[in-house]
Amino acid sequence: MRLRYRYRLYPTPGQRIALAQAFGNARVVYNDAVRARQDAYWAGEKFPSSTVLQKRLITDAKKTPERAWLSRAQHSMLQQAIRDCDQAYRNFFDSLTGNRAGKRVGSPRFKSRKDNRQAIRFQPDGFGIRPTGKLRLSKVGDIKVAWSRDLPSAPSSVTIIKTADECYYCSFVVEVGDETLPPAIDEAGQDHELALDLGLSAFAVDQHGRVLDNPRFLRRAERKLKRLQRALSRKQRGSNNRRKARKKLARQHAKVADTRQDWLHQATTSIVQENQLIVLEDLAVSGLARTRLAKSVHDAAWGTFRRLLEEKAARYGRDLVVIDRWLPTSQTCSACGHVDGKKPRDVREWTCPCGAVHDRDRNAARNILAAGRAERQNACGPDVGPATRAAGDETGTHRSAA
Which of the residues are catalytic? Predict the structure, then answer.
């Protein structure tokens, strides 16, 4: 399995200038590749291959007065910029034909030196790690790295990133071995199971009624963000004071994002290590993000929470089941299966005709767990889902029309 390990970089003022030049060199080559693809499209010609573009936009361009300065840039970094453009077009076409999951990917656009995020990638011939712990980058120099943990293996590439708050990071791609954890079972030999009903008032409630509080990082920092945004809007465009105000605002946004990311990593790691089966509900996050609850939905970061759980479950050998979003988990009695109908959001407890009194979120988590158990067993053989009175055929088979 390949993973990314990211560390903070502390370049000197001279190295910052060299990195800015490297960002610019890669950006120009990438934009030239996009322009070449666009020209071929409008001319009705076949798209030039990555190899052809590397020769035309790098090797031949270095011999021209307009692009002679490319000869001072690291060669494999420029080649990687064209490969990135090629991958961007591949993602675009796969999205158009339905071969790529997720939201529709737009056509590659030109990069700007004013973009909030700048990045370049070096192959093994362009970087190395010194015995002193510094990162050697070709044409840049030895940069100080804040090593928070050791690399598990030799990196195959490194990406240098500059963020909006003018911080620098290096992201290594490394190979890791088998990290499967021992099975999470109780004293009776049963798997530890966890079902989570995600929400906004509480981030999640499990089948035992335990609550994971919603930290609301953006809401807590909103007052300071508004003050910094007002200060930025009052500065004259192009002035040094505006640049300083923009940097302060970017730092505060980065602090909110980093704090949220750290909390999500800690929460998901704890959940995956302690449970063998984890069940979630498939929430329509993109749809909820278009409602009046949009800011709270984005602040909760349900999508990132689910993605981290999926990645860590696969990494550590756990089972993650995501059930259908249309199951009426909040309307169904977990004791008798009676569907009691829709209820307003302010109804937190309700009584089933069978006499069971339910907490709304805990009851939903219990139903999510039951559906997750059925989904988990369905993936292994016959239909053993909730009582639908249907025949139990093997998964993937079809009964004859006769």
Answer: 197, 281, 361
